[in-house]
Amino acid sequence: MLYRQNRWISIKDWLLLEAERQQERWFVKLTIPDNHIPTLLARGRQLGCCLGSVYLKSLGKGGRYRSTVS
C-alpha cells in the first residue's frame, strides 16, 4: 500500500525490520537507503498510507528516536 500511494520514492528499496501494534497505531522499524533521506526531508518526512499518513523519525545515538536526521 505504501508503494502505491508514494510513487515519488522507491519504497521497494527499503527493508522492514519489525512492526508492532501500539493501541490504535503501528510502530514500524525499517531501513531506508541514505540517498532517500534528502527526498524524505523535502517532503516533511511524511508518506501517504491508506486514509492517513505516516510520519518518519530516525534512530539516533543511544537508541532514542528523533525528528532530525544526523
Question: Structurally, how many domains make up the residues?
Answer: 1
How would you write the strand order of the largest sheet? 1-2
What characterizes the major β-sheet?
2 strands, antiparallel
Average pLDDT metric: 81
What integer value in Å does the Rg equal? 12 Å
Shape: globular
Share of helical residues: 10-25%
Beta-strand percentage range: 35-45%
- Distance from N terminus to C terminus (CA atoms, Å) equals 28 Å
Low-confidence stretches: none
Helix vs. strand class: mainly beta
Helix count equals 2
Describe this structure in words.
With 70 residues, the protein is mostly beta strands. The protein has one domain. It has helices at 2-5, 37-42; strands spanning 15-22, 25-31, 46-49, 52-55, 58-59, 65-66. Strand 1 (15-22) and strand 2 (25-31) form a beta hairpin. The longest helix is centred in the middle third of the chain and has 6 residues, at 37-42. It is globular, with a radius of gyration of 12 Å. The termini are far apart.
Question: Summarize this, please?
Answer:
The protein is mainly beta and 70 residues long. The protein has helices spanning 2-5, 37-42, and strands at 15-22, 25-31, 46-49, 52-55, 58-59, 65-66.
What are the key terms here?
single chain; 70 residues; mainly beta; two-stranded antiparallel ribbon; 2 helices; 14% helix; globular
Chain-wise SSE layout:
Elements: H1 2-5, E1 15-22, E2 25-31, H2 37-42, E3 46-49, E4 52-55, E5 58-59, E6 65-66
Antiparallel strand pairs: 1-2, 3-4, 5-6
